[in-house]
Amino acid sequence: MGFVKKNITWILIGLILLIALVLFGVSRFLAGDAGQVIVLVDGREQGIYSLREDREIKIETDRGFNLLVIEDGQAYVAEADCANQVCVHTQPVSSAGGQIICLPHKVVIRLETTEKSETDAVTN
Questions:
Q1: What is the pLDDT of residues 63-72, one digit of tens each?
Q2: Going edge to edge, which strands form the sheet with 74-80?
Q3: What tens digit of pLDDT does each residue of 24-39 get?
């Protein structure tokens, strides 16, 4: 009888691990794309970057520069040569709708999801 109990224990442990792996896979699938960072300079799109790829982007304008850092699924301005430094002191953004603005350089950094939304402009 001890042999049967040991086998049942191992079967239950294996089953629990299998369920955990399946749930992890489903949660990753449902999470979808992390989103994208859209950089606008003077109202014109300068670049689109994935939040999944860590990188540094130097945004140069005729008014100065901003150093955009994307890491660990969030984006922030690490450095800028504008006088007020509001963009540098803005908290990192990591979800759709978040944005960082540098008025002196006319730079807008906006996060959007790449998935189609079920909501419209009124509910956003």
A1: 999 999 999 9
A2: 55-61, 64-71, 74-80
A3: 777 666 555 568 999 9
